[in-house]
Amino acid sequence: MTIRCVAFDIGETLVCDDRHWGSWADWLGVPRHTVSALVGAVVAQGRDNADALRLIRPGLDIAAEYAAREAAGRGEHLGESDLYDDVRPTLRALRERGLRVVVAGNQTVRAGELLRALELPVDALATSGEWGVAKPADRFWQRLVELAEVRAPAEILYIGDHPSRDTFPAAAAGLRTAHLRRGPWGHYWAPDPAVRRAATWSIDTLQDVLTLPLETPVGE
Asked: What distances in angstroms separate CA 170 from CA 6, 184, 203, one per listed residue?
């Protein structure tokens, strides 16, 4: 079946999370290396990434701390320097090939606003905060299919780094998938046999997508 829409995860797919984790380390008053090391530990254990912060401060209420950071003027920030270098060229090239390009990931409402301000070359962009549902829930993938404006889920290629939030649930929802070897989750889980079986393709950079046999429709 022809791929008509390419959809992208956000964190560690389009956006480098260095600023995100560094800002949490600063807020919690610990060295940035401590947070990095703990993120690595929870990645290896297959746990929620927020558990890295709960290891520093047991019982931490992530939502309450997020609100406190915003109130203190130390909330989310996303700029051009947070994008990986291959993001804009790849998005632009896919659109030039006649594909619909969308972005949808587990991010806050504020992150959606910041991403739109970057004016990425995409047809649509949404976050879990805006939808009120997050990956890996089935409803997230239903919303993504609506955003993609396709006739069937198999006409969507979803690209992400996280097996349990991206590759496995997207495949279960009937989408084609590309597991991206990027960031802690992408690198750690890339060789895993289950990930390789679930992914339609495994890629090392976003520009690898341009070499895939997507069977782009012509003149439709």
From this structure: 13, 20, 16
Q: Return d(Cα 80, Cα 82) in angstroms, integer.
A: 5
Residues with Cβ within 8 Å of residue 119, at least 6 apart in sequence:
none
What is the Cα–Cα distance from 53 to 201, expressed in whole angstroms? 32
Mapping DSSP to helix (H, G, I), strand (E, B) and coil, where does residue 203 land?
Answer: strand
Provide the pLDDT for residue 202.
97
The pTM assigned to this predicted structure is: 0.92
Nearest Cα to Cα of residue 20 among 87, 114, 90? 114
User: Residue 61 contacts by C-beta under 8 Å, 6 or more apart in sequence?
Assistant: none
| Mutual angle of helices 62-71 and 18-28, in 10-degree steps | 90
pLDDT per residue as tens digits for the range 69-100: 999 999 999 999 999 999 999 999 999 999 99
